[in-house]
Design goal:
- The chain has 160 residues and is α+β, with helices and mostly antiparallel strands.
- The chain contains four helices and five strands.
- The longest helix has 21 residues.
- The protein has a single domain, classed as 3-Layer(aba) Sandwich (Aminopeptidase).
Length: 160
């Protein structure tokens, strides 16, 4: 599998729905691993509400897109939206997921490179924005390597 054989393209409706189902579980797990100190049931509820707020019409929500990185099969997936911020179009990358068996092979980097090229050529977005959990050091290192800069940080402290 080489970069030349990997192409970022839209997921089908069924693939998008399957990916959304994975996002619900994966996002909840990521929040639990972040150890924010919330009870598990609260995290599950918050995760679902957060995603539902961003996607009120599910995969049919306007200006939201689900793409996959394919060779013969899909190896990685992204969910992003085109939004307006201060009068410019930005691409907000909500989620990136690389299948377990393809991790640590440079696919996340390849997805992001193709995503950036697509934002310039097809969507005409001027900026790409994303969020990352504080404890996800591998993702933070990847984003920094690809030119992302920290814009804001959200901190939390348990008081009980």
């Amino acid at each position: 599998m080489t970069e030349d054989t990997l192409k970022l393209k839209p997921l089908s409706t069924q693939e998008s729905q399957t990916f959304l189902d994975l996002i619900y579980d994966d996002y909840t797990q990521s929040m639990l691993e972040a150890k924010a100190g919330y009870p598990d049931a609260s995290v599950k509820q918050y995760s679902k509400e957060s995603i539902d707020e961003a996607l009120p019409k599910g995969i049919e929500t306007k200006d939201n897109y689900f793409y996959g990185l394919f060779s013969e099969e899909c190896h990685a997936r992204i969910w992003f939206a085109i939004e307006q911020d201060c009068g410019i179009d930005i691409a907000f990358l909500y989620y990136i997921h690389v299948d377990e068996k393809y991790r640590r092979q440079g696919l996340a980097s390849e997805v992001l490179k193709q995503f950036e090229a697509m934002m310039k050529s097809k969507f005409k977005a001027e900026k790409i924005c994303l969020s990352v959990f504080g404890g996800n050091h591998a993702a933070q290192a990847l984003y920094k390597k690809l030119g992302f800069e920290t814009y804001t940080e959200r901190m939390i402290k348990s008081v009980i």
